[in-house]
Amino acid sequence: MDFCYIWPILALSVILHWIYRVSEDYYILSFFSRRVRAKEGKSLDSIASVAPGCTIFGNCFDLYGKDNGEVFNYFRNLAKTMKRSYIQYNVGVPAYQIIDAENAEIMLNDQNLISKGLIYDFLHPALKTGILTSTGKKWHMRRKMLTPTFHFNILEQFQEIFKSESIKFVQPFIGQEESEISLSKLIPRFTLNSVCETAMGIKLDDMHGKGDRYRESFEMIEKSFIKRLSNPLYWNNCFYNLFVASKNEPFLKVVHDFSSEIIAKRRILLEDILAEKLKTQTADDDIYINKKTRFAMLDTLLLAEKDGLIDHSGICEEVDTLMFEGYDTTSNGIIFSLMNLALYPEMQDLCHAEIQNNIEDDLSNLDMIQLSKLRYMECFLKETLRLFPPVPIIVRRTTRETELANGLILPTNTQIGVQVFDIHRNPKYWPQPDEFQPERFYKENSKDRPTYAYLPFSAGQRNCIGQKYAFLEMKTLLVVVLKHFKILPIMDPESFGFHAGITLRTKNNIRVKLVKRN
Ligand code: HEM
């Protein structure tokens, strides 16, 4: 009897058995992505759904070939169809996407989940590993170093700068009956000026158009970020360095040269300030809260360098991080706030009336105490950040197998996305979620809402360090603009189209009309 056909059958059975056993733990077609499990006694389905992929390879190629708008909509569509937090299987890594407040709370409060997700690695060429992207001891040390720079006394000094920058912003339009302006073009210039002067202690006016080149270069870096995100081949550093990195280099050079120049300038200024201080110092003088010499956040880093706590490259990565975080996010918040003021004239009238009741026409006295009286405007800004969160997603990764309080067991390197945009529009917490209603944030209307249903500044130990700074800056500009102008819409909000970016983006520039107030 001829047994030769038995061997292939035997081999095939062994392979099939092996595949069966391996597939219990790995999603083989998604390049051996380890499976997410539920703890004993619970079923996976009772905690989260698994999102179907667009191909047989799990979700590996779901974003492939998609442009910025399609990448943005992909996540919005998934939230609508899945209706609860869901699991995806990407190239060799699982992802847990959170779209509800309860699971966001579990994740953001977990002391072990402080490492940022894979997509933050895509920011390393630009921001290296500064406070936003670093983890572990390095992050703890930098956070401790930078936190005092957002102290109330220092913010008070910054508010003076926001005020003078805001007055400078409206100056070109003051003599005109009406002006059409592109917020997307003008506001980032305003916020970059403000962050340079507050955080870096350097006036952009002295840098001859370099600010514009900095912003344009960051736009190009962002394009390459999305390109990398939507092609799993480029998730790997080797392929990215081989095919894409060189195209990015000229833009990275502009960004890094810009921050190096700022550091060099401030280094000289700080030496002068310290020398002057030595001459006039009294016992209880403090460099940070001296009224005559303005303090900049960069000074903290330069002084820490003297104490050997940070080196020059560390200062560079923090400056790049603070510049980027400090200008792009607030510019987003201001653009959408001004757009909403234009779209909702009755609410604009309420904001204006509140300003007239609380703030003198002579803006030279505008300070933090006056701004704190603008309660309606605060709700207006909060509602803007709900519908248009400048940071629409926050991602962490597990550094070891992690059991969450909801019973999910996440393998090492699972990406956990908190989909802020979707949580902010989840009808479970926000009735008529797409409607703009600042009253949602009145105290009496907020008390039954879970805290983690609103996360524009994230929460937990890695929350935004610049939250108060951002509110001060946004409020100051809005007050100055509304004192002088009525804001009118000139475009249909449906026409701007959301885009994925490092922060929330629109396809088309947002424009409004400023009309002189009588
Ligand atoms: C409307 C304006 C702003 C919004 C919506 C915002 C939002 C956020 C969010 C969501 C995070 C967490 C990101 C993550 O975990 O991936 C964050 C972190 C951070 N933000 Fe902001 N931000 C704003 C303004 C600012 C400003 C003005 C500064 C500084 C001048 C700043 C500095 C930072 C820093 C340094 C971190 C990293 C904190 C850490 O990881 O410890 N942000 N921000």
UniProtKB/TrEMBL annotation:
It comes from the Eukaryota. Its cofactor is heme. Transmembrane segments: none annotated. It is found in: Endoplasmic reticulum membrane; Microsome membrane. SUPFAM superfamilies: Cytochrome P450. It is a peripheral membrane protein. This is Cytochrome P450. It comes from Drosophila willistoni (Fruit fly).
